[in-house]
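Entry 14. Structure prediction run on the chain below.
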Amino acid sequence: MKHMNSEVKEERTSNKKRIDLFLGPIVLIAAFLNLFKIWTDEYANAYYTAAVKSMLQSFHNFFYASFDPGGYVTIDKPPVVFWIQTISAKIFGFHGWSVILPQALAGIGSVLLLYVLVKRTFGVWAGRFAALAMALTPIVPAVSRTNNIDSMLVFTLLVATWMLFRAVRTAKFGWVLAAFAMIGVAFNMKMLQAYMVLPAFYVFYVVATKITWKKKIAFLTTATALMLAVSVSWAVVVDSTSADKRPYMGSSQTNSVLELAFGYNGINRLTGNTSVTGSSHKQPAQAQQQTASSETKQTSNSNAESSQSSNQSKSSSVKKMQAPGGGNQNGMFNTGNPGPFRLFQKGLSDQISWLLPFVIFSIVGLFARVKFKGPYTTKQKESLFWLAWLLPVAVFFSIAGFFHQYYLIMLAPPIAAFAGAGAVALWSMYKQRNGWKSWLLPGGILTTAALQVYIMSPYVSSIGVAPIAGVGALGVSLALVLAVRKERKNSVTNYLGVAAMVVLLAMPAYWAMTPIIYGGNSMLPAAGPDSSSGMGGPPSTATNSKQSGFNGMQPPGSSSGNSSSNNQMQPPTGSSNGGQMPGGLSNNGQMQPPNGSSNSVQMPNSFSNKSSSSKRKSGGMNAEVNKKLLNYLTKNNTGEKYLFATTDSTSAAPYIIKTGKPVMAMGGFSGSDPILTVSKLKAMIKKGEVKYFYLSGMGKGGQSDVITWIKENSKEIPSSKWQSTSSSSQQGPSGNGTLYEITLK
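Output returned:
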């Protein structure tokens, strides 16, 4: 034990005396993947970008993270990341790239932090490989290139990890408090998702510290109390503020931050129950069949060429592919079906699981000599930390009912750490011909290459056979050659080991580049040849290859044109769409309009692989502004607070971004928040706060009474006065919307 500790100290001293020349290229790779061409994303995730625009206008909006400049409703997450984005926009000006920049830098920072964390204990080569694996994990740059929260969340949790490791090394309680307080800060980024690392923090501190059990319990209890205090600090302030003095808490059903934290952003993610009526996102098999049947009927109505391409696209997205161990690979938002092999199903595996078999072999090697009663080496203690991070998070994503592909970034740090530490450990066992453990390296290479072939196989039409065959052939060959040469020690064997690692990282590297190559989706980020769709699954075979993402939806007021039949929304099976993207999704990942509408609705052109302009107006269901509608509303505004009101954030966000003026999303993000009542709306109209209402049929949710009252007591504005007549316009949300005017005396 003393000998091993002295080796670690010597390695630390030698590492401090030299600059790691290998780290520079790794950081440059991370910077390229996270930063290159983010300036082409004009709106990013429009829902969050609109909030930043609003937060720039007043401290009131800034503190509450108001979605709209009028302070009507907040976004559906706590404010810390958006505070950082707003500060960035204040410094660099309001742009898509300025709100993305903090997340991109956080992605790079996570690579550096993982290098520091792994290198100190497992060695410089372990740190290098871990950092490179983190940089090339496809979902990491895919998320970091957007203004979604998860990249900043992971960086914050890695900072907390660094503090915890320092607390154990220095035996200073202050660092323990700092580590748990940082988790509290992370809670104010994405609520309960930050707590997923707590098992690792508790287990590691108990195992790694050499103090009495009494002190361990006392210190952890105190640190946990501080964490909880930091976590709920903002929530307590908001919930204790009178509702009429702050915005409504978006995506909650009781106007409460704590309800949002433990409901919509908490337990409901596990159960899949995110509807306002208590019903699940899940659909029965019969409903899925009806949806598929409806799609077929709608497809048959389009022209022959469009029909053929649409059917090809649907067959790839609706077809149920079998995963290892059974179960289809679709599921809501292409997150597969719950089960022990879910992370190996299509839609998830290509985002995070490229190195999982190698990680499993690494875990076996790193824990090969562990005795339950100890004593434990520093390497074993930190390996236990990463294992206690990896397993609970992997279990959650294997059984959870509702999450998005980009949440998988939570698995990236432990997978990368084990990949780096394991590569060095397995190589050492291999070179030392350490019994059965010497077979772990070639075994890990062989099984990992096999999984990568499996991951890539659904994408053969877009990436070709050569990369798949190449990875398979090289992986198998190198594994077999290493197995045969196990008894030899020379430089050739060393080169073979390096070549094997390069082969295992080649396709993850390509996948990590796809958001740059093909374009990305800022609303539902995901990597892969179809990354611009953000929906996972094999690439679209649409007639126009430039539109394999979400197609066709245009701003409020656009006249309908010819619509293709692929990627059409379908009517749901009953419940309103609480907390979903407007319209929600069926289990096979197909978009649906709410309220039983039968209209065929397309997804926005802005999600296509390549935009016709240098700027991509992506990230929202409507990322465009109808200039004729805007001119009409501006010209006829007679002092009203709100430019207009609409059902949900979809139609409101682009106008907030463009003008900085208040636009009321009556039902919040998805249109299902119970914010507005008829009496409250009457009072607002009488006060002269709002008089124009754009209703498109999207996201009515719990506000059907309000919408009915609007239609019965309003004057419809002729479409010729505000509707665009551009020939390039496509169908809007649930068909063309209608503009109404109400004035009460």
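The chain has 27 helices and five strands.
Filed with the rest of this week's runs.
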